[in-house]
Specification:
Largest sheet: 9 strands, mixed
Oligomer: single chain
Number of strands: 24
Helix content: 10-25%
């Protein structure tokens, strides 16, 4: 399948691919005859790092540029760097899958350059904003929406606790639920939560100087007017760019922006946890097998065929979201793990009751269309072209949204709608039932994180 070729590259790109001018217009070096590296495995994707400043200048900018170049070498994308706004022409920008605004400040682009960048984003380009990218272009409304929020103030550099809200996005999937680090923590003029998908926020009780009333996003992503945008408030200090956790965070944001990995970056509000990684209160195991809960809050299926179901109560109209991952494929593992999410079944200690009375949204990379990932198992295939474009391969996290309204069931994978099914079987009903996670068999290891639900008006309890 086409999605199987999309993965986080781990190859080294030749040194000549990574050369970029920090004083002149960006220039592409892919295919340079003078390359001393192998270039083997390079995806052909390129990133432009833009670090022009018309206000305060961060002394960490050279460290940031060097870090992105190194991340490109291991992440499989070429990197050019410039401080020349003349690089912002339609023709030049087309050479890049993403532009990184690395602690830019003030008014850095003229109207023609702004228009070129707007067109670039609207035609599917990627944006990565780092730290003072939020202290940039205050009079350019398009840019403010793209960045997500503008800088207002900051206290002194100090340690703080970052609460990781999304642990499926590649920028945050490698982090624990809390991330303790030292940086200069920005306050913003507005809260981006209603417009963007918040990946991480600051615990304002863990440091002094926060002014956002306890809801303080610090990293987020969004789909914006045709493009893909990621912003992180970290990166003020030189030390940030030597920190492996921050480098992974930044790399994940870049890989999302260049569309090497997929993620659900729609705004997410009003959900409450059914499983947050700390407790299985309200859940029961039906049938054989079980799930193991790791210290990082991940549930992994063991044995089967059974079902871990939420017995606390049933639901009528709702949206449930959860993150899932199959095991990484290897020489002896084709990545053919099997699991699923059951909805609309009555309470029972028999897992086959869910099979016979409910509906399963399947997780299985290699089965026939009506029984493969994204299908309503045995009833309706996913839109396979959309599914394949949205699906991350084995070993990487994916996010399902399963929305039930009346007898209609819709499925989103990493923010892309891939299935729309309506029940017409009088022996089954989606209007009131329970939720469950399948443990399919001894050789099927599928992991889950962060099951959360938002009840919808009009039906159910």
């Amino acid at each position: 399948m086409s999605y199987a070729t999309r993965r986080l590259a781990t190859v080294v790109v030749g040194a000549a691919l990574l050369l970029g001018s920090v004083s002149g217009p960006a220039a592409s070096h892919s295919g340079d005859s003078g390359s001393k590296g192998t270039g083997k495995g390079n995806s052909g994707k390129r990133v432009l790092v833009f670090s022009r400043t018309a206000g305060f200048r961060h002394d960490s900018i050279p460290d940031g540029v060097a870090a992105v170049r190194e991340l490109g070498a291991t992440g499989g994308f070429g990197v050019d760097a410039t401080e020349d706004a003349g690089a912002f022409t339609p023709g030049n920008l087309r050479r890049y899958q993403a532009v990184v605004f690395l602690s830019t400040t003030g008014d850095v682009l003229d109207p023609a350059q702004q228009a070129a960048f707007e067109g670039y984003i609207r035609h599917g380009g990627g944006y990565v904003g780092v730290h003072a990218a939020a202290d940039t272009e205050y009079d350019w409304e398009f840019y403010g929406g793209l960045a997500g929020a503008w800088f207002q103030s900051h206290p002194a550099i100090q340690p703080a606790t970052v609460d990781v809200e999304d642990r499926a996005h590649p920028a945050t999937s490698g982090l624990a639920r809390t991330w303790n680090r030292t940086d200069e923590w920005y306050n913003y003029r507005s809260n981006p939560r209603e417009r963007a998908h918040v990946l991480a926020s600051l615990d304002e009780q863990s440091y002094t100087g926060g002014t956002m009333d306890g809801d303080h996003p610090i990293a987020w992503c969004q789909n914006y007017q045709g493009g893909r945008a990621f912003y992180t408030g970290g990166g003020h200090t030189k030390e940030s760019y030597a920190d492996p956790a921050f480098r992974r965070h930044l790399l994940g944001g870049i890989l999302y922006a260049v569309a090497d990995v997929q993620a659900d970056c729609r705004p997410e509000n009003g959900y409450r946890p059914l499983f947050d990684g700390t407790s299985l209160d309200g859940w029961q195991q039906a049938g054989p097998g079980s799930f193991t809960l790791s210290d990082d809050g991940t549930l992994t299926s063991t044995g089967g065929m059974g079902l871990l179901w939420y017995a606390g109560r049933g639901f009528g109209a709702y949206s449930v979201k959860l993150d899932w991952r199959t095991t990484a494929a290897g020489p002896s593992d084709p990545g053919d793990d099997n699991s699923g999410v059951f909805v609309g079944f009555p309470p029972s200690d028999d897992p086959w009751s869910a099979v016979n009375n409910g509906y399963e949204i399947q997780i299985d990379a290699t089965d026939v269309p009506e029984k493969t990932t994204g299908s309503v198992y045995g009833f309706r295939s996913a839109d396979l072209k959309k599914r394949d474009r949205a699906l991350n391969p084995p070993g990487e996290w994916n996010t399902y949204e399963i929305r039930v309204e009346g007898e209609r069931l819709r499925v989103w994978l990493n923010g892309v709608k891939i299935n729309d099914f309506t029940n017409t079987d009088p022996a089954r009903s989606l209007r009131d039932g329970h939720l469950g996670l399948q443990n399919h068999g001894a050789d099927d290891m599928v992991s889950f994180r962060d099951v959360r639900i938002r009840e919808l008006p009009g039906q159910g309890h």
